[in-house]
């Protein structure tokens, strides 16, 4: 238990202060352990933890560390741990030379005292370790994570757009917002800009090749992962792969995602019979694996071989690598597609395969009958509530759920509570991904680069600056908003005619769709409401809006890198802010039409022209 003849210095303060010397006394190891415990406790708390013991990466140099007192808007994103003073009062028994009284001559009593000191030393060391881990955890710098706040010179101001100050900008502009009156027609009542010449129209069936299907090479089973968009893309890519391999596709299963936690089946979300019937001329689709094929694997799905393919795989890869494996296995291949499923198949594929992918996305896949009915009812109710703007309304898809904020690693104005909740959410859903060695979290750069989800407050300010006043009907599609009472209140104040699925649909209508904690059913119905809106501010893919509206997405897509600079300026004037927002709106209008680049860098799921649509002359 003793420390031995240790005379080395610990720390820069010299031997008189911190040197631990052994004593030629019984129990010297215990006293040394106690001293070490006290020393470690004080050092760990005074130096902000024990990064030199528990961190996989060295702490930043002192001149690059964050200031000792940071606000909740500091770039590092970690709240400041206030200094902690730990006072250890030790009643040292009398004895010469600093030894323990009674240690000589009374071995029994000395052993008991020594045991107590050992326990004290162990407890102090444990407390020191726990305190250091807590401080490092709250500071966000352990586990190989470098927090970018430490990369900025101490005391240096954050670059424009690095810090969330939108709530301060709203406080500054709100009186002018309320005092100003619209000087031009309501944006929803103005005619939609149209490009002269030809317009885009659906023409997928003209591009599809129809021929008698040859005998099937086997069954293709896939598992779709992610949210609604990712699942949809995986299904369409699976249709294309099944056509390439001349395989029979089994209607996809949905993976129980750790974020969505939705247990829906394919037929719960999509019209399964319509999907199978629409594709019957192009590929074979069955609802489940036939009994004669399943019996070969003892009715155990885990016995079915599985294969993962590379991202952005070409047609030749599937024909040369995957098809032989399918034929070798006989009749079944379990084919798991990864999360980013639009990468599983190259964006540039033969025209007939691309057309089939278009057909699957825009024609074969449609929502189930209950979801379509709910969506239609919600649209009708929204139109009736928009009488002040001729039945026209704006839809907004807010991505301000806890998992989105946690994944973005952005910092808002929630202080230490927000920091803890975001860290817990990251660990709950991604288990250590953000604490891997070498991982750098840079909240400031994320915000400057436009990677932070817009708050409801920011959405309201932006729409207000674009000219949408409090007579505008606004539909908000979202999951569970993080800290909704705080963040949704300003948006409701700016747009009192705000509606959500909970206000448009009755509890009885929504109850039948709540199969999971977040439920993709409600999101599916909201997609219909968004598709029918006159304007959309959305992170929903606008592919269906382009497909429905002759190639024009009618979607407001602001440059968030410009937005953050405006939202980070509490001294900005309302007239300048409004002018900047209207410029963003006009830019979105001009970019409403777009054609895919010839190199195929943009997928058909983002821009359906020209692969899925044809140009026709205006009448």
Describe this structure in words.
This is O-fucosyltransferase family protein. Pfam families: O-FucT. Belongs to the glycosyltransferase GT106 family. The chain crosses the membrane at residues 30-54, 75-93, 120-147. This protein is α/β, with parallel strands linked by helices. The protein folds into three domains: 1-157 and 412-440, no CATH class; 208-364, Rossmann fold (3-Layer(aba) Sandwich); 369-400 and 454-593 and 603-617, no CATH class. Helix content is 42%, strand content 8%. It has 24 helices and 15 strands. It has helices spanning 15-18, 28-46, 51-54, 107-139, 166-179, 204-207, 228-245, 266-269, 272-279, 291-294, 315-328, 351-364, 369-384, 402-408, 415-430, 443-448, 456-465, 484-494, 501-504, 507-511, 520-531, 543-548, 560-567, 574-590, and strands at residues 146-147, 198-202, 219-224, 248-250, 253-254, 285-286, 306-307, 332-336, 394-397, 440-441, 474-477, 498-499, 535-537, 555-556, 613-617. Strands 3, 4, 5, 6, 7 and 8 form a six-stranded parallel sheet that branches. Residues 1-28, 36-106, 135-146 and 338-342 have low confidence and may be disordered.
Low-confidence stretches: 1-28, 36-106, 135-146, 338-342
How many domain regions? 3
Instruction: Please tell me the overall pLDDT.
Output: 74
Extended strand count: 15
Using the alpha-carbon principal axes, give the shape: globular
Rg measurement, Å: 32 Å
Helical run tally? 24
Strand content: 5-15%
Helix % is 40-55%
Determine the structural class based on helices, strands and strand pairing: alpha/beta
What composes the largest sheet?
6 strands, parallel
Terminal CA distance: 94 Å
Keywords: Carbohydrate metabolism, Fucose metabolism, Glycosyltransferase, Membrane, Transferase, Transmembrane, Transmembrane helix
GO biological process, one term: fucose metabolic process
Transmembrane segments: 30-54, 75-93, 120-147
Organism: Oryza glumipatula
